[in-house]
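Holo prediction. Input below; ligand is ribose-5-phosphate.
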Amino acid sequence: MIIVGGTATNGIDENLSKIVKVPLIKVEHKIFPDGESYIRIPQLISGQEVYVVQSLYPPQDKHIIELLLILETLSDMKNNRITAIIPYLAYARQDRRFKEGEAVSIKTVLNSIRRAGADSIIVIEPHKMEELSYFNGEVKVADPIPEIAREIKKRVEKPFVLAPDRGALERAKRLANELQCEYSFIEKERDRDTGEVRIKNLPDIKVRDKDVILIDDIISTGGTMIQAAQAVYKLGARKVIAAAFHALFVENAYERMINSGIKEIITTNTIPQDPSKVVVVDVSPSIARKL
Ligand code: R5P
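Structure of the complex:
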């Protein structure tokens, strides 16, 4: 068994190698003058169980291409069983044709990963579980909720978990289970042209004087979390914490979230973060549980 660290690992490859006590080989990588990526696996790997770590955080397209180059090279080295560990799976939110003629991006990305040589994939909490069926091979989902819950427990007295979107309800349930508290969800809608988020339905949730933990798969513009935070403060919440597996913080999303009254943001290292701003949970233990 061997771990191959790709070009976008944010230290997860090293952490994983230490936890599971498996040797790590880092790929050699450079950028040609014209901007194209060069990849070299510095030692012959053959007849092995290989785990390639490559997260698809920005620049997503570059990191996808580099993953494909790594996978095909390992495939060419013969008789390897290759698992791609993809902590942040980019393009996951374009999982269907919202308008006729649109690309189903996640399908193309997962098909390409399979064709390049991955026999199986391990991802951290994707946007939707169903979309993983586009990968024609073994799929495992690593769940860092126990580690996230441990951080939340240090910061709350009367927790209440809220999914800021119906799609996050199952996550809210799992987190509430860890925190032994109530949970619910609100319904939002997004204008697919402007990207603006609006709350469609606010159920009668009892959050007065509670510490509300908003849990979602991803923070991009922060719009979803901000709308939800404002709504629960109006209902009397004591404080709001935002938790998300993957935080992109597009443009000034972080500042806008803090200005909306969100007291703390808890996320993971699937995407590089500034630890002076957010609480960062390492996903490596959750991946190790899947090996
Ligand atoms: C959407 O369905 C996702 O689960 C997230 O709620 C969404 O992508 C977050 O994006 P933003 O931060 O831009 O509101």
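The pocket of ribose-5-phosphate is lined by residues 93, 127, 165, 167, 197, 216-224 (CB under 6 Å). That is the main takeaway for now.
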